[in-house]
Amino acid sequence: MFEWSETDEMIRAAVRAFIDKEVRPHVDAMESGEMTPYPIIRKLFAEFGIDALGAESVEKMLAKERARAEAGADSEPKREKSSGGGPFGGQQSMMAVLIGELSGVCMGLVSAMGVSLGLGATTIMSRGTLAQKERWLADIVTMKKVAAWAITEPDSGSDAFGGMKTYVRRDGEDYILNGRKTFITNGPYADTVIVYAKLDEGDGADRRERKVLTFVLDKGMEGFSQGKPFRKMGLHASPTGELFFDNVRLGRDRLLGETEEHKGGDGRESARSSFTAERIGVAFMALGIINECHRLCIDYAKNRTLWGQEIGRFQLIQLKLAKMEVARINVQNMVFNALESTQAGKPPTLAEASAMKLYSSEAATEVAMDAIQLFGGNGYMTEYRVEQLARDAKSLMIYAGSNEIQVTHVAKGLLAQ
Ligand SMILES: Cc1cc2nc3c(=O)[nH]c(=O)nc-3n(C[C@H](O)[C@H](O)[C@H](O)COP(=O)(O)OP(=O)(O)OC[C@H]3O[C@@H](n4cnc5c(N)ncnc54)[C@H](O)[C@@H]3O)c2cc1C
Which residue numbers delimit the Acyl-CoA dehydrogenase/oxidase C-terminal domain (predicted)? Predict the structure, then answer.
């Protein structure tokens, strides 16, 4: 693959038309927090049939599992190898175009959507029992309900599992959950929340080594509260906040897999299995930011006149444009490679996805900062949009595992060869 297919380009044209009509007029309202991204995501889903596609693929999967259960087979799901597509398995190319186009205008919206589907729905899909999938999945993949995925805590970000303090204790057949999560995308508004917690068996075992269990909570449960959206540097359209658990009683039906001995390993494994897809998703978003900066900068370089000539004639401006082009080619090639290898049944490894995330997030941030410089004073003004792209891009270097952590994952892959 060296270029987007005709179908991809048709989708791009349709997505751009949707963005012009339904997203751009509301970017300021989402940036100020006056409006959440969810009504627009729902419109997008309806317009492009994404809700129907998601519902159909979930229904197909459930039908297969029901048949297996009726045939007497073990109904606990086998852990499926992630192809990076989440509930939209075979549609990665369409999702890449959609994510890229939206990210160039409002990356927060993509982030809110991506966490709900790519982390929320996918975790239930890969870890839940048939009954749990029937209970939660259809509403999430159609975006009727918004999901959040909560690992990070005030004292444990990069050291997510070792430092985790949120815990459950058994109480008869139930569990009692206590603790707190932070920086959770969709946290303030989520209807369904995947929560990772340590199992405290009261035996004084080393807290770092305790088993991690994964639960599903619903908004409004007694003892569960959701904080207000944080004020952030960028990504304003994506509400981020804290979650608090004060003696929340959880039945076993809320423990994903309904067993402490999940075939796919404990919650650590559950989270790790999402990393590859999440990191490839970051490259899709980075490409969107780069493409938009590239487009805006070329246009500005041709139209801004100083010293009697277009600024595009100045070599230092040309250097910025050339560096943007190199970044665009590199990140696009990485995206093409990931799409093609996934299609061929050989999706990127975790180390490769980490390398993509590391490079593409830095490239997008650098390109967007250069775009501000190229625009001069206008670049620093909200009206010209590149400052928003730079603020949004920076988040890509921090979430989905900070870039320092990506370095360790790339190196681990290399040293294991
Ligand atoms: C916008 C946004 C949305 C988010 N959404 C979610 C979400 O939906 N769910 C969720 O669970 N979390 C979410 N997070 C949290 C995110 O995953 C963490 O912020 C991230 O993992 C880093 O953790 P930390 O913030 O605690 O930084 P820390 O772990 O405290 O890191 C501080 C610094 O130390 C560096 N560092 C850490 N360990 C090492 C090491 N071994 N070697 C070298 N350097 C190291 C880090 O890279 C960083 O530069 C979100 C964060 C943001 C900003």
Answer: 265-415
